[in-house]
Design goal:
The complex is a heterodimer. Chain A contains seven helices and no strands. By secondary structure, chain A is mostly helical. In chain B, helix 1 packs antiparallel against helix 2. Chain B is built from three helices and no strands. Classes of the chains: A mainly alpha, B mainly alpha.
């Protein structure tokens, strides 16, 4: 009885209802995140449509190889996260911890590659500010592109950092037996967040790196 | 959840790689505005795969579907109004 009581919070009728409430809550939060990133994508689209030529030129300065590798890294991390949820529900705790650790390492790898790109852009003078590498009227528009680049990838990076932290906490909760196969909602919710961070990147990558043509 | 679900994850994962190769490859073709359409179309397929399989929307409560669709609906309202404004600013009477 005591384990059952611990698994079911008192405001819920049964475990199924508790699980539905948890997942629904996460989806509602993600809907607010869609609006948050959506506004940025909209601002980018409108600004780009006003300066198509400069934005296409500016996009060519981005490292397409690093962007592609990072996309593959995030896809892989989402894959291992999805497998981890499945493994937890099947009670394979060691496998869950292994898979989540791989996700955390891949998330860290993504940020490391992103950091390397930031460093290169900084050294080349593409960080918006007084000493921007391109001057003149077209320079202002290129600078605007890089403002969007740093804001979009920066906010995405912060989201990924949060996802990394939450996943690390989840590993701890699973090791200490507070998230269990019958009480798996915390991992399901954090996995939804992880996949959402992946989804944001699925739009950031083509909009910034690809659509100007190479 | 079981072997069947995990096989579907592997399938989705391979598709994501394939689509990534497609979208990067298409960026090297010079097709003008069609480049943008291809990139957004592939991104749309990728997020559908992630949402339906990795995020389990496929087997999830329909309330979650309503939330997911509502977020896209509100997003499209915002896009339609703002782009409608900018697209018609240079109109003359």
């Amino acid at each position: 009885m005591s384990t059952r009581a611990a698994e079911l919070a008192e405001q819920f009728e049964d475990v199924a209802q508790q699980r539905e409430a948890s997942t629904l809550g996460m989806w509602v939060f993600l809907a607010t995140e869609v609006m948050f990133f959506g506004a940025l994508f909209l601002a980018f689209s409108v600004t780009r449509s006003l300066h198509v030529e400069s934005f296409s030129q500016a996009a060519k300065h981005l490292d397409i190889l690093a962007g592609t590798i990072n996309t593959a890294v995030l896809f892989t991390s989402s894959f291992t996260t999805a497998l981890a949820v499945s493994a937890l529900q099947q009670g394979q705790l060691k496998r869950v911890i292994g898979l989540l650790s791989v996700s955390i390492v891949l998330g860290g790898l993504f940020l490391a590659i992103k950091g390397h790109e930031y460093h290169e852009k900084w050294v080349e003078g593409f960080f918006p500010g007084n000493t921007f590498a391109v001057s003149g009227p077209a320079g202002n528009e290129v600078e605007l592109f890089f403002l969007f680049y740093f804001i979009l990838t920066g906010l995405h990076g912060i989201h990924l950092l949060i996802a990394l932290g939450v996943t690390a906490v989840l590993v701890w909760l699973i090791v200490t037996n507070r998230v269990t196969p019958t009480r798996s909602m915390p991992l399901e919710a954090s996995a939804l967040y992880w996949h959402f961070v992946d989804i944001v990147w699925v739009f950031v990558f083509p909009l910034l790196y690809l659509i100007g043509g190479r | 959840m079981g072997a069947k679900t995990e096989r579907s994850f592997i399938g989705v994962y391979l598709w994501l790689w394939l689509l990534l190769a497609g979208t990067v490859g298409a960026a090297f073709l010079h097709l003008g505005v069609i480049n943008i359409i291809i990139a957004l179309l592939i991104a749309g397929i990728q997020i559908t795969l992630i949402a339906f399989y990795f995020m389990q929307l496929r087997r999830s409560n329909h309330l979650n579907w309503i939330v997911a669709i509502a977020s896209l609906l509100w997003l499209s309202i915002m896009f339609a109004l703002v782009i409608g404004d900018y697209a018609t600013r240079s109109w003359t009477g």
